[in-house]
Design brief:
single chain; alpha+beta; Aminopeptidase; 6-stranded mixed beta sheet; elongated
Length: 408
């Protein structure tokens, strides 16, 4: 503990001086540089980052739990600071980032570059800035001798369907660990977020029969059947615009359906025998994805029957790819009021993008979303988080420690 005390004391003084100057602490910046340097695009392993965090926490005497994907190429990390104490708040972030392929970056996306008061690099906003700030606070958290534990939760594959967090929560449940609350640090400009839409993805595959385009009656046109499904989904989306009760707290105040990719056909003079499309659905809290999914599958079944009447080997299938449930927490919930108090704000917003918050909430863990940076600056070339936002997050962490994480 003596080592932790000496480290945390000097770190706290350095952090306070930096934050007063509108900059994050030197330790937060150092950790962010390291985290961004790990290429954790979702198609890649995240083990380098996870093992680095595990080893850094081990230097402080903190033991980490790892839970793995099926191939053991990726892992979640769950670490308890204050082991043996009552379960406390989880500081949660995902370690994977979106690809940079085809994007026009003005600096190396996997190296933090500072210019014009901003820190550029893939994941700086979404959401390695938050993770860096939380990890930088670890010595001070341990030094504070809090009445309850504080937990770090780092997940894999959030960007492709929030797959990792399910394994993390399953592992906690099997171990009998039930955290008291959770703060998911997605980029919200350090403003509490109390609700987001559900996010769901489908793949629809149409198998037709090839023929010369001069003899279309000898074939089954997979592209044209796929187009019928696209038109049907546009009609359903239009009904949401006309009929669904609106919540103006969301930037887009109704549920949406989009055909996001489509591919089919091989040549201009061949009746296409294959067409595949993907669909993105964003459902308002209270709107049933299951009912919407059933509508789409029912219409696809009609198309499948029509295709088979033309040729038995043809047809279409709808495949569920991934889903993130909608999230909603009462605006007056203690965890929300706590986030407001720490952020020095009276507001609380709603967002259209999905997060792991709904999954923590479904596991019975009171949850709020708040973190540095803007979602508008994520996923794009030259992603960035401002120095001021990261400094504000450091301040948020300091206030949590000073409050002894007492949120109820």
């Amino acid at each position: 503990m003596a080592l932790i005390e000496s480290v945390s004391g000097s770190a706290s003084r350095d952090a306070a001086a930096s934050i007063q100057a509108g900059r994050p602490s030197a330790r937060t910046l150092e950790i962010l540089h390291t985290l961004v340097g790990f290429d954790t695009v979702s198609r890649n392993s995240n083990l380098g980052l996870i093992e680095w965090v595990r080893d850094e926490l081990a230097k402080l005497g903190v033991v980490s739990r790892l839970s793995w994907d099926a191939d053991r190429r990726k892992a979640n990390l769950f670490a308890t600071l204050g082991d043996g104490r009552a379960p406390g708040i989880v500081l949660s972030g995902h370690t994977d980032v979106v690809p940079v392929d085809g994007q026009d970056w003005h600096s190396d996306p996997f190296k933090v570059t500072e210019r014009d008061g901003k820190l550029f690099g893939r994941g700086t906003a979404d959401m390695k800035g938050y993770i860096a700030s939380a990890l930088a606070a670890a010595p001070a958290i341990l030094h504070a001798n809090l009445p309850s534990a504080v937990h770090f939760a780092l997940s894999y594959d959030e960007e492709v369907g929030c797959f990792g967090v399910h394994e993390l929560i399953k592992d906690l449940q099997e171990a009998g660990i039930q955290p008291a609350g959770c703060i998911v640090g997605e980029p919200t400009l350090m403003q509490p977020v109390v609700s987001h839409k559900g996010t769901w993805r489908l793949r629809c595959c149409f198998r037709g029969r090839e023929a010369h385009s001069a003899m279309p009656t000898h074939g089954v046109n997979a592209v044209e059947y796929a187009a019928q499904l696209v038109v049907f989904m546009r009609e359903v989306a239009a009904r949401f615009v006309r009929e669904e009760p609106r919540d103006e707290g969301f930037p887009v105040p109704f549920s949406t359906i989009q055909t996001t990719t489509i591919a089919g056909g091989t040549a201009q003079n061949i009746v296409p025998n294959l067409c595949e499309l993907t669909v993105d659905l964003r459902t308002m809290p209270g709107t049933s994805f299951d009912a919407l999914h059933s509508q789409i599958r029912a219409f696809a079944a009609q198309l499948d029957a029509q295709m088979k009447r033309e040729s038995p080997e043809t047809g279409c299938e709808v495949e569920f790819l991934a889903g993130v449930p909608a999230f909603v927490v009462d605006d007056t919930a203690p965890i929300v009021n706590y986030a407001r108090r720490l952020a020095r704000t009276q507001g609380a917003g709603k967002v259209t993008f999905g997060t792991e918050a709904g999954i923590f909430s479904q596991a019975g863990i009171p949850t709020v979303i708040i973190g540095p940076g803007s979602i508008d600056d994520a996923h794009r070339p030259d992603e960035f988080v401002s120095l001021q936002q990261l400094a504000d997050c450091d301040t948020f962490m300091q206030r949590m420690i000073e409050s002894k994480f007492d949120w109820r």
